Every structure is written in C-alpha cells, then in structure tokens.
Amino acid sequence: MSVAELNEKEVATLLADHPEWSSARDGKAVERKFQFGDFSEAWGFMNRVALLAESHDHHPEWFNVYNRVEITLTTHDAAPESGGALSERDAKMVASIDGLV
Ligand code: H2B
Fold first, then answer.
1. Residue with the nearest Cα to atom 14 of ligand 1?
2. Three-state SS for 86?
3. Given CB 3.0 to 4.6 Å as the disulfide criterion, which of 36, 66, 87, 94 pairs with 75?
4. Residues 6+ apart with CB under 8 A from 62
5. pLDDT per position as a tens digit, 42-75
6. Whose CA is nearest to atom 8 of ligand 1?
7. Nearest to residue 17, comparing CAs of 81, 97, 78, 74?
C-alpha cells in the first residue's frame, strides 16, 4: 500500500515538536539515541517499543548494545523503490515512543 510522504513543513514540525530526534538518511528518516541505566532497562524499553510497533503496524530499525538503544524510523511503503521516506506513521511512532520515556 502506498503511503503519502511528509512535506518539508511537516518534517520541520515533527523535528521541532520532538527535539531529541534528528533527521537521517537525507531527510528520509529520523533517529534518536537512548541511554539507560543498564541492559535490563534498555531491554524493557525495547519490549515496550515492540508492543507499540505491533499495535501501529510500524516497526523500528534499531541497534542495541548494553544500555544504549538507537532507533531509526522510516516508512518503506512511502518510497519502496528508494528504501523509504517519512510519513505520518513515523510521526505517530515518534510521539508514542517519546511517551514511554
Ligand atoms: N514498518 C516500517 N518502518 N515501515 C513500513 O513501511 C512498514 C512497517 N510497513 N511495518 C508495514 C509493516 C507493512 O509492510 C505492512 C504490510 O503493513
């Protein structure tokens, strides 16, 4: 299913509303780095994000080592031929993830 890509103004609003996130992949994705007290806390957070991802049907690309978690969000369905672009789905996931921390 094709999904509408956010325009420049919508991306700017997303980043202004969520200053811990930054633009990545030439504006086609957003990312945020998290740091927790230990692996157990990081894993607990990842579990909560996994449940959110399932309920949104929108899944993060992520990296974890010990207490660090890095999340990248993009919408493959917004630009399937080029690896993805930002959509309202990313904006909703950003807001939901920020609601966890
Ligand atoms: N996650 C992300 N990050 N981008 C997508 O485009 C996407 C997804 N699409 N999760 C969903 C699943 C899609 O493949 C299913 C069929 O709805």
1. 77
2. coil
3. 87
4. 46, 49, 69, 70, 71, 72
5. 999 999 999 999 999 999 999 999 999 999 999 9
6. 58
7. 97
Whole-model pTM?
0.96
Residue nearest to atom 17 of ligand 1 (CA): 57
Cα(20)–Cα(40) distance, rounded to whole angstroms?
Answer: 22
Contact 57 CB / ligand 1 (< 6 Å): yes
For residue 37, what is the DSSP state? S
Number of residues that make up the chain:
101
Give the Cα separation of 87 and 59 in Å (integer).
Answer: 13
Q: pLDDT-based confidence at 2, cuts 50/70/90? A: confident
Q: Is the CB of 92 under 6 A from ligand 1?
A: no
Pairing of strands 29-35, 22-24: antiparallel
